[in-house]
Amino acid sequence: MEDQLAESLLTMSNQLRDKDKEKHVNVQISDEESSTFLRNLYADVKFADEIHSGTVDLSPAPASSGAEEKKNVSGTDLFKNMFSRDSHIPFDALRYGTIIFISAAIAYGFHLNRSYWVPLSSAAVMGGGTYVSNLHRGIQRSVGTIIGIWIGAALLWLKPAGLFVSLTLAGLQFIVELIYARNYSLAVMFITPSTLLIGTTINPALTSGYFISARLVDIIIGSIVAIVGTALLWRKLSSKRLLTVFSDAVEKEGEVLISMLKSEHTPIQASKQQGLQQALLQLRIVYDSALAESLRRDVKVTSLWPAVGDCLHLGYMLLAASRHPSREVAEERVHEYKVYFERLRHSFKDNENLCIDVPDVPSLPEYPLIHEDLARLNHSLRNEAFKKGMELHG
Question: Given a cut of 90, is residue 199 above it in pLDDT?
């Protein structure tokens, strides 16, 4: 059965690529002989096949509610969220600004040739986003520049002029655009010859050695400043914030679920859904950043992944289910879930007892898949591996 399910997924993958919907999932399953895991996996694959073939209704909510939802999203709200207590944007902006300022101060303070190449190199290296990515980009930019200088020197030795310069620049830029997103170091090997060729063409009075030495020195200095700055300025910020952001996402999920159970008005639900979307995006960004804070993966960060993954899955399931609301449920069940998420929120504040004080999930017959996701999240929170990650909050 496992082989049949794997073959079905490959078939769907090929269908998505070739836009062919003739074949369908045809797996023989026995409820008595198969495990619960395999039956659930079969149900997921079958549902995916029905979505792909168009036999299941996934129509969005009415247009009126969509219009009301858009009204709730304003530029002011987005701006406030950028500078909220849990946002990483102010720290990223301050890190960028500080490193660029230091790069420019070094370049212009020592009167380096083509001084602007130093802060530009720092900005290019910081494009990696995380410490590990910046380290990789710094090394790649330095090595790529050294190799690119040899290529550029060979081109300059040919003493290009006129149309040859234009065609060479066009060819180099074409290669850069093809490989830039795939391999940064290879792209730098062709960016450097372009820079040297443009410089010597615009300033024929200056020798090629002037541009070669300036390029090499400025890029190495800019790369070093960016790597050192990233290592020293708020490098561990994401890992320290991870548990707080995780707790906020769980809290937002509780608000959306309770809003669905109470069948609140569309504008209220839309506002809570927007908050949950932002919390889920923030959680993934912070987790990925925490994972890339060092060259070796931190066991404390990786131990949190099962809970983080379950939290993300639950959040997107809630967002999907909120477009197809169920009837209003009894007040007792709403109260049960209010108490459940309140206890969960308090347990996050008390780190030492979190793995012990996770409450049981109340029943939820209206949304069985969401109840299953909640149970998985509960299991991840109670797991001993999760306890290792609790030290991050301290």
Answer: no
